[in-house]
């Protein structure tokens, strides 16, 4: 029902390599990258990336959009916390999309941000599958971005 | 498509004619008795003759389970489509729809409905009569409000409402206990308490309707004009537990903020049948801004925490 994160390689603990599958209309929350390097390559379809400024310390207003672009098949993108925050979405209503993500060092939690207020909320990130095997769901109350 | 299609490929189960420039799906498809999945995305379908006549009665009409017509030119849901009683999955994403016909309720087997990327301005309450609907996508439209009746979609697990014109949600949304995903980003949701707006006293029709409902006055469809039968079926119950009344159009509106996952505040619209009623959640005063915004441990919030994955972003 939403995009899936599928772990492909955990690189001896040095990085996480995963494939994300986005159905029509699927998108992520605005999120940070927990001080890691993040590379993304589009394997199929298109993904829209919207960059946001970090909200002010006591921010209580709409977050500021820095830029947005549509990444096409085979295009690559990079982000880290010093560049900013982003939201990634498959804006197509007819095609699904697939992207390859490399995170180094690996991280399993990050912050998601409410675009209207800038408030952040730490979330744990989970995998739909790992190394080809379906990861059973853990039923908890939480909000997830990637 | 070739006229002999059903003769040459009687065992055909999946047919993908996406991106072929078709402006009509013809009668040659009707006799395919095993075809359960028909993908016709990104074509020129939408004018008269987009779907073959007699679809509902044909073998194809009984076998079809999945139909994808996204990326075409439909300005309205073609009536022929509503005859597909076995249809489980329907996509009309990225078309030119301005509305959803109430007869959508005829698609009794529907589990998956994708209507994102159209020009839909409102949602008919009849959509709530689809007993198996679990995945409903209404993103990227022009929807200003969601009918509270949608809370009757007990099977609903995923609801996509992002990028619309919603300023609030009906309080009843919290009754969707199986809802695991809800996307609301890109809506002009009110972020501050909105004081109650003007209260229009009920019309005579409304007062008569309320009396019929609360006193259980018996009536049969043959007793009343069709429009009044439909009107009476749309009665909503006042959420005030001490009231037990019903209302139709005339009600007091009150926005209440509910915390999701303890972090996001969603404005929910409470409808009450009269200014004397109060929301089950509120205490004495509805006048203090800070009081309403600080309400967190009340029945509405408990219900909100039952919703597991909320994608608000």
UniProtKB/TrEMBL annotation, chain A:
Keyword Metal-binding: yes
CDD domains: cupin_CDO
Pathway stated in the Swiss-Prot or TrEMBL entry: Organosulfur biosynthesis; taurine biosynthesis; hypotaurine from L-cysteine: step 1/2
Cofactor comment text: Binds 1 Fe cation per subunit.
Cross-linked sites for 3'-(S-cysteinyl)-tyrosine (Cys-Tyr): 38-103
Function text: Catalyzes the oxidation of cysteine to cysteine sulfinic acid with addition of molecular dioxygen.
Family from the record: Belongs to the cysteine dioxygenase family.
Protein name: Cysteine dioxygenase
Originating species: Crotophaga sulcirostris
Lineage: Eukaryota, Metazoa, Chordata, Craniata, Vertebrata
Automatic annotation (TrEMBL), chain B:
Composition bias type Low complexity, residue spans: 280-293
Pfam families from the UniProt entry: LRR_8 (PF13855)
Positions of transmembrane segments: none
Region of interest (Disordered), residue spans: 280-303
Domain of life: Eukaryota
GO cellular component term of the entry, any: cytoplasm
Keywords: Leucine-rich repeat, Repeat
PANTHER family: LEUCINE RICH REPEAT CONTAINING 58 (PTHR48051:SF53), PTHR48051
Protein name: LRC58 protein
């Amino acid at each position: 029902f939403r995009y899936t994160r599928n772990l492909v390689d955990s690189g001896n603990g040095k990085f996480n390599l995963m494939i994300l599958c986005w159905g029509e209309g699927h998108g992520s929350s605005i999120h940070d990258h927990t001080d890691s390097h993040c590379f993304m390559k589009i394997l199929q379809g298109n993904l829209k990336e919207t960059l946001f400024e970090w909200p002010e310390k006591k921010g209580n207003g709409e977050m500021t959009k820095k830029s947005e672009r549509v990444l096409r098949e085979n295009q690559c993108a990079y982000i880290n916390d010093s560049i900013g925050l982003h939201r990634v979405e498959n804006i197509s209503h007819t095609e699904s999309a697939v992207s390859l993500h490399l995170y180094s060092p690996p991280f399993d939690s990050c912050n998601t941000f409410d675009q209207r207020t800038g408030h952040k909320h730490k979330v744990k990130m989970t995998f739909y599958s790992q190394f080809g095997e379906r990861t059973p769901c853990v039923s908890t109350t939480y909000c997830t971005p990637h | 498509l070739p006229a002999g299609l059903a003769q040459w490929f009687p065992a055909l189960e999946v047919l993908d004619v996406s991106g072929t420039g078709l402006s009509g799906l013809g009668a040659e498809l009707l006799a395919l008795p095993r075809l359960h999945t028909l993908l016709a995305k990104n074509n020129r379908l939408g004018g008269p003759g987009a779907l073959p006549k007699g679809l509902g009665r044909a073998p194809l009409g009984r076998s079809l389970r999945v139909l994808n017509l996204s990326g075409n030119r439909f300005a309205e849901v073609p009536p022929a489509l509503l005859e597909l009683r076995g249809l489980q999955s329907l996509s009309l994403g990225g078309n030119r729809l301005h509305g959803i016909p109430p007869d959508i309720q005829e698609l009794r087997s529907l589990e998956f409905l994708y209507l994102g990327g159209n020009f839909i301005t409102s949602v008919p309450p009849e959509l709530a009569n689809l007993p198996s609907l679990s995945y409903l996508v209404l993103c990227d439209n022009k929807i200003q409000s969601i009918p509270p009746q949608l809370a009757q979609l007990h099977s609903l697990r995923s609801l996509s409402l992002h990028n619309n014109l919603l300023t609030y949600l009906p309080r009843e949304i919290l009754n969707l206990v199986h809802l695991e995903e809800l996307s609301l980003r890109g809506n002009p949701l009110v972020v501050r308490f909105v004081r109650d707006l003007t209260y229009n006293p009920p019309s005579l029709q409304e007062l008569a309707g309320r009396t019929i409902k609360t006193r259980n006055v018996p009536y049969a469809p043959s007793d009343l004009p069709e429009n009044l039968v439909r009107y009476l079926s749309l009665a909503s119950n006042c959420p005030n537990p001490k009231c037990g009344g019903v209302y139709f159009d005339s009600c007091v509106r009150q926005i209440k903020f509910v915390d999701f996952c303890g972090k996001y505040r969603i404005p929910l619209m409470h409808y009450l049948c009269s200014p004397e009623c109060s929301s089950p959640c509120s205490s004495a005063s509805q006048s203090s801004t800070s009081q309403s915004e600080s309400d967190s441990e009340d029945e509405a919030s408990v219900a909100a925490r039952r919703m597991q994955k909320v994608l608000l972003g």
